[in-house]
Amino acid sequence: MKETKYSSQPEIEEACDSDASLNAKSSNDPPMRLSLYLCLASLTLVLFITALDILIVGTIIDVVAAQFGNYSKTGWLVTGYSLPNAILSLIWGRFASIIGFQHSLILAILIFEAGSLIAALASSMNMLIVGRVVAGVGGSGLQTLCFVIGCTMVGERSRPLVISILSCAFAVAAIVGPIIGGAFTTHVTWRWCFYINLPIGGLAIIMFLLTYKGENKSILQQTKDIMGKISSFEFGKFRKQVNSKRVMNGIIFKFDFFGFSFCSAGLVLFLLGLTFGGNKYSWNSGQVITYLVLGTLLFMFSLVYDFFIFNKFNPEPDNISYRPLLLKRLIAKPAVIIVNMVTFLLCTGYNGQMIYSVQFFQLIFASSAWKAGLHLIPIVITNVIAAIASGVITKKLGLVKPLLMFGGFLGVIGAGLMTLMKNNSTRSTQIGVLLLPGFSLGFALQASLMSAQLQINKDRPEASMDFIEITAFNTFMKSLGTTLGGVLSTTVFSASLHNKVSQARLEPYVGKTVDDMILYRLQNYDGSHSTIGNILSDSIENVFWMDLGFYALGFLFCIFSSNKKLIIPKKNPTPEDNIEDK
């Protein structure tokens, strides 16, 4: 039998700190230290500014469009951030497994901060969009790495609580984002919506460096080691040691260059087709059809390449770091793909609900951005409560699938109730229908990530790397669902609005783009029960019906998810029970 060599295992174990290694934690977790709490606080702060950057933009669109005179490009302030945010999630997981968690997170924060600074200093709409794209690249790494680092810092039993704490950052940002953005835009300048990321990000870096000991070394010792390597560096010797062929193989096979390229290009083209369809081009136009068909084919080919072609050309098949981003052994495993489909479908529906709940109050009742955002408080509070409750219950009882199904079931009921939100519904109805979607996502997302992580075979030498990539894949599905939810909800709303305006032959809206219709509506508001008010209400209702479909499909996947539970240690353990998991 051929002996398998694991030449890159030391490299991977170096990326996973010895205290945080997947294989070094037993189910009976030791008490959490103060440094651990502070490190989790720094990760939560990082996720907070990432989420804030997504949610705060909605408050500046009108002001920026007026200043730069290009309202048609304002959609790219969201899309420019969300596209790289989704497609780069997988590559950051691989990057971290090779160069280490600490360096990867710091790099991601610096890229995110650079994008925020570019956006804050923007002198044109194009420059602002570039800043958003750069921030999206960094933000993608932050979302992936914070969950990977947080989960590897504790034992399996404490992970649900850590996941819940980190997830709360998004919920809190959903409340704070519109309020802060509205205050800055109204009383100071919209540029502070991006400047605010700089001091918060700087504080997060300092806290993280002081509390996270990725290699059980102090930050001072790590700095000395780096400076020592720099001072002893000899370029001539390094040049002789560099093997151009190995460097090229590393790019192609360590980072799955071709698979990543095909997947990214496919997703970008497909999402652009959905974005342009019915807006810039008609749905039956050659441009839109080409985007959608070619995007789908490229994405499908990326799966074929990773699953079947990659290893045929792999020069080092026994090197566990030479593997595709979408590893068939992990991703195609039913128990893994099912729960990640739950994440994808629920995030798709949830983001549509979040966006058009705000749009409902802005377009129909002419509420300001921050006042409209205040209506999301019920959905955010219930999300936080459910996330914390889910973490506590899972840690105490080991339950995963019951919470996943409970969250999926609440999502279906809540999405059904959301269709009752209309321009003639009562204020209590408009508030009450937002409660269950928050509960749903709070329970389901934590359980889905935990369920996926439980499928890892800890006996495999590459278990640590599997853990990183399953967590990264979950973040990828979450980001992709969030992005697709925003694009699809806008597509449904736009198509519905166009059709209803054309049928009613409503002047002066006929023949205008959706952006122009909305701008005219806000400048010439004629009440919530006018003809255009009724049309807007019906169009938003169609978005909520679409969201109901995603929740229903997500609940079906919940039913077929894995029955694995967390192992809860006995109250009076025997010596054998205290042996650490392999």
Automatic annotation (TrEMBL):
Biased composition range(s): Polar residues: 1-10
Subcellular location: Membrane
Family: Belongs to the major facilitator superfamily.
Keywords of this entry: Membrane, Transmembrane, Transmembrane helix
Chain positions covered by the region annotation Disordered: 1-26
Superkingdom: Eukaryota
Entry's transmembrane regions: 34-61, 73-93, 105-123, 129-149, 161-180, 192-212, 255-276, 288-309, 330-352, 372-391, 403-421, 433-454, 475-497, 543-561
Lineage: Eukaryota, Fungi, Dikarya, Ascomycota, Saccharomycotina
Protein name as annotated: Basic amino acid transporter
Major facilitator superfamily (MFS) profile domain sequence ranges: 39-566
Origin species: Saccharomyces paradoxus (Yeast)
Membrane topology: Multi-pass membrane protein
GO cellular component, one term: plasma membrane
One Pfam family cited in the UniProt record for this chain: MFS_1
A GO MF label: transmembrane transporter activity
InterPro entries found in the cross-reference section: MFS, MFS_dom, MFS_trans_sf
Keyword Oxidoreductase listed: no
